[in-house]
Amino acid sequence: MRSLRIATLILVAAATPASAATQTSATTDRVARAASGMARLPAGSYRPLYAPGGASRVRVAGFALDREPVTRGEYLAFVARHPEWQRGRVRAVFADARYLAGWRDGLDAGDADALRQPVTEVSWFAARAYCASLGKRLPTVDEWEYAAAASERKADASADPSFRARLLALYGAMRGRSPGTARGFANAYGVRGMHGVVWEWTLDFNSVVLDDDSRATGSGADARDRHLYCASSSIGATDPADYPAFLRYAVRAGLGARSTTSTVGFRCAADVPVS
Amino acid sequence: MSLHIHRPKSHTVAQSLLALLVALIALLLTVSIAGCNRVADAALSGDLTAVPVRAPSTEIVGEEVAVLTEAPNVPAAITRTHATKVIVNLEVIEKPMRLADGVDYTMWTFGGTMPGRFIRVREGDQVELRLRNHHTSTVPHNIDLHAVTGPGGGAKSSLTMPGGESVFTFAALNPGLYVYHCATSPVPMHIANGMYGLILVEPKAGLPQVDREYYVMQSEFYTTGKFGEKGHQTLDMEKGVAEQPTYVVFNGAVGALTGDKALQAKVGERVRLFVGNGGPNLISSFHVIGEVFDNVYTEGGTVASQHNVQTTLVPAGGSAIVEYGVEKAGDLILVDHSIFRAFNKGALGMMHVSGEDNPKVFAAVKGIAGTH
């Protein structure tokens, strides 16, 4: 079931307007242009919720990440250039029926305030196409979590109980309000709004998924071989007290590549040119 | 000659073998048929010594939408005598609710109420559960009903993002009173935030007639502030892990069953309480001060397994049904008799009994303050 889902995603992704060819043909110059204005994150490591092969930390290469989530205004400019991504024109295989449902019209994303809000109600396909149109890509789960582990001062505050408590409060405050009313804090990398603004798409959001039933162990050779590290239960988790991480992983598990919801947006990442 | 003698001999051996084979088959058939009958009879007669392997109803007649109630109310007893398709519409809503006077908490609810809506179906019904997650929710949710025979009690098929809907069906195979709850990661957080309720699968023969039925569910809250600290409170994970709750309450709030919200009964009536325990951690020592339980259906099963009980245990993620007749006017007090919880954390409720005083049942004779 899950492998089918991933396989389908890859197949359909290959057929999207933002084809892999666009990315592979990107020149170093283009990558450099894309990365300008983005935050540069140095190579490092982080502690994933589910660690492959028993490693407690995963290495992450240096990369660039958007300082803020993509806004409605930016997304509007994208759909103006790429009509195939306008509401009403987008193919059903790429986004479900709620795609951009909060917009007034296909090319009307709302007033000036609305344009400054993070865009939501976008599918994984759409987010991926947006980033590709700028020579960027979605961050991987590893990259996203690595960037999100930072507090204002510490590069890795993920094990700090007070930081965790703060994240839980931020996530709780997301309830029922438009994403535009909060920008979140800027962390040690100069990246803002990783927590409590919107949940964000990642490139491989469903490569590490919790079982739909979040207590099954799912451990065993089969699961490990497929890198499906333990379906959600605390068994297999590197730290069963990291509730903010469990929440993020549960959100990813609840998404399909066509899903659009009012709480999920995205930001783009880019490779940093090797000098 | 030797051949002549040999032939009948071999014939006899073959015949004997055949007879033996026939006898064996007959024996096996007899045993298996008898076995089937015994299991089937056991399922019908309530014989507890045999374990039935249950089959869903072969005939489902009609369709209805379940009437779900807000605690302390319970849907009316089921009067139909056939199995039907029952549609249960549950919506998860996250919203700030009163936990105590001046204290609120963002409850994650099944149906916008605390505890979750009471579901009542009949043994043998085919239930279609439609779980929606309100679009203002922050996180995905699902549902595990302990009454469900199937993967994760339904949880595996019901992970639902904000704004989404999941649907699954199940056969109500086992009668009894069951807890349902959310089982999305991190599960303790979802339960600690209020995601539990009760589903009654009424036995085919129904429950004995009573005059009042109520829904009471105990649970704990782990807040960052101390008991009674005003303002909006959030989950204190460390208190949860340590199993040291700030609040222990009935029906989601301190005072949910006191004052003008007390349960009501009249002298001479028979009362049934469907008691659930959402946990997430504590076992309840459920007791009603001033009464004795005439019947207790231990752990929410279908047999009145004990009579004349003072205090009954209700496990976390479990239930009990208690029944009693009320013989005396006045206020009965519902408590978790782990008594600090009642005195200092909120585990107090009330049943107001009106009607005849009935001094032969009880009368204060001499003291500083008589009841009458």
Describe this protein's structure:
The complex is a heterodimer of chains A (275) and B (372). Chain A is mainly alpha-helical and 275 residues long. Helix content of chain A is 32%, strand content 7%. In chain A, the strands form 3 sheets. In chain A, strands 1-4-7 form a 3-stranded antiparallel beta sheet, with helices on one face. Chain A has a two-stranded antiparallel sheet with strand order 2-3. The N terminus of chain A is likely disordered. Chain B has 372 residues and is an alpha/beta fold. Chain B has 4 helices and 21 strands. In chain B, strands 1, 2, 3, 5, 7 and 11 form a 6-stranded mixed beta sheet that branches. A 6-stranded mixed beta sheet of chain B has the order 12-10-14-19-16-17. The longest helix of chain B has 44 residues. Chain B is globular. The termini of chain B are far apart. The N terminus of chain B is likely disordered. Classes of the chains: A mainly alpha (275), B alpha/beta (372). Chains A and B meet through helix 8 and helix 10 of A and helix 3 of B.
Summary, kept brief:
The complex is a heterodimer of chains A (275) and B (372). Chain A is mostly helical and 275 residues long. Chain A has helices at residues 2-14, 20-24, 28-35, 72-81, 112-116, 124-133, 141-148, 161-172, 221-225, 243-253; strands at residues 39-41, 44-46, 58-60, 63-65, 199-200, 264-265, 269-271.
